[in-house]
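thread: overnight batch results

M.L. [08:02]
morning all. the overnight job finished for the chain we discussed friday. pasting input first so we're all looking at the same thing
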Amino acid sequence: QQALGRLQVIIVERYITRVLSAYCRIEMSFLAELTGLELEFIHQTVRTMILDGKLLGSIEEDSGHVTLQHKEVRTDLHVAATEVLSKMKVAVGQLDSKV
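M.L. [08:03]
and the structure it wrote out:
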């Protein structure tokens, strides 16, 4: 029974995380509407996820919004592009100094 309850929590948290991945800021009532879950349950679950470090963000109690900070995912392509842009900046700076 306890394992089943834990599994349910994991499924709900993953579902909420997936829905929230599309937003930087969302109203709790809209999140409840999107998920089909009760507002108080959503509020409690999101609060617990933030406190447990499963979500990076904060709840604005007065407005009922959740503001999220998504972890930056750096792919090999992103790292390579950043390196190229850095080298271009240096090259442009050198050209500028010669003009």
